[in-house]
Every structure is written in structure tokens, then in C-alpha cells.
């Protein structure tokens, strides 16, 4: 199914005031297991750079959820968000100007297959982006060029173990639950080899979304999105749905993020430029 129209509907609802926008970010942070993994790694990275001001790239910034959290974790740093959707760039620039942090946080249009700012960043974050880009190795090369020495690339993306839910569709279907994906997901070796070819020599890749995480994703995202896709009326029932299911999702997320997984439907990848 197409995910973007539903995201636009949600954005329309929560963009009415800065308070609702921040509330939306907080709800996503609580519900999305990928956010739990990403923020845990970001806090570890912050300890490694101490109080030093750094430059950060949010590669595929979307609604600005992760850019906003980056600005909170790395409060004195300069952050740039880039995306191929101009309406989201304009929206994020307006919001971050409204809340008064536009001097250290900026957004601009960029195609990641063409975007390169040599030695420009200490940290590059890419969350749920690479599964949408056919020319992924070109993007990895651009990431490598854009990192400073000792910089880190942090990627969260679906794995090839059912990360796009393709295993629940017939074999003739190219796409899974989210139609915008150009690949089902990455394998550990696959993404590691591509990053090596791009120039990275130190790579850590591991599975996320084990059995508990996959169940949490279905309860917190898949089922609500399917219902929203069928009827706008479900927006009215959505708060009550989450009141019932959120405690279970939070428990499942906590278990998953503190466990090691032999397999999983997601991948978390850290790659360093030495």
C-alpha cells in the first residue's frame, strides 16, 4: 500500500500548532522501535565526542522528527536536514523557525545520489531511507566523502528477513506492505560489502526488530495504517486504539532494544571513516 498519503494526512492534523507538532514527534519516539534504537546509539556517540560542537547531517529528514531529537541531544551543534520532497523541506524550515532554533538547524532540498559535501560532517544519520533508493552504493560513496575523519554513519533500514513484509505477499509482488520501497531489505553481508566498497573500513551491522519488536510494529504501525488506509473514520478511533495497545508496545520495544537478535526484520548499521 502507499504510505505517503497517510503520512500527509497525519501531518495535516499535527501541523496546526507547534505544540501539536512536538506532541507528534514525542508520540513517534515512543511508538517507533527504530527511534529507540537510534536514540540509544546517538547518546553513546555523544559521549564519544564529549562536549565538542559537531556538524550533523540528517539524510532523508522527512517530517523532521529525528532532526528535532538531534537538536535536543546535541544542543550546541549545527544540523542540516535534506530531503527530496520540497514540501517537507519548506514545512520543516517553517516549524524550526517558529520554535526558534533555525540558526543551528536548517533544511534544504537534496538528492542523496548527487549530494556530497566533502569532510562536512561528524555524524550522518539515515533512518528508513536507503530502502527507497535504487542507486544505494552511490549514496554510500557520497556519505563517505561527506564525513570527516573519525566520523560515523548511522543507518536504520529494513532487513531482508521480511522487513518490508514481502513474505506476507504472493511471490509475484515486487513490493511489500509499503509500496515505495525499491528493495525488500538488506542482508548483513550485503550492506556491509557495499559500505566497504564505498570506503568504510570499520562497520558494525546487527539485526533489530526481533520477535517482540515485530509484534510491536504490527500493533503500533501496521494495523493502524491498514485501517487508516481503508477509512478516514478510523482517525476518530485512533486515540482509543493506542490507549489500549501502547503499554504493550512499550514493553515489547524495551525488551527488543535491550536484546541481541540472531535475525530480525530491521538492521542497525554503524560505519566509521578512519
Outline the structure in words:
The chain has 274 residues and is α/β, with parallel strands linked by helices. The protein has one domain: Vaccinia Virus protein VP39 (Rossmann fold). Helices cover 47% and strands 18% of the residues. The chain has nine helices and seven strands; from the N terminus they run αααβαβαββαβαβααβ.
Helices and strands in order:
Blueprint: H1 4-14, H2 18-31, H3 33-49, E1 55-59, H4 65-73, E2 78-83, H5 86-98, E3 105-109, E4 121-127, H6 136-146, E5 147-158, H7 188-198, E6 202-208, H8 211-230, H9 234-257, E7 266-273
Helix pairs in contact: 3-4, 6-7, 8-9
Describe the structure concisely.
By secondary structure, the chain is an alpha/beta fold. Helix content is 47%, strand content 18%.
- Strand numbers in spatial order across the main sheet: 3-2-1-4-5-7-6
Determine the structural class based on helices, strands and strand pairing: alpha/beta
Q: How much of the residues is beta strand, in percent?
A: 15-25%
- Tally the helices: what do you get? 9
Name of the top-level CATH class: Alpha Beta
CATH superfamily: Vaccinia Virus protein VP39
Give the N-to-C terminal Cα separation: 41 Å
| CATH fold type | Rossmann fold
Report the count of strand segments.
Answer: 7
Number of domain units: 1
Keywords:
alpha/beta, seven-stranded mixed beta sheet, 9 helices, Rossmann fold, 274 residues
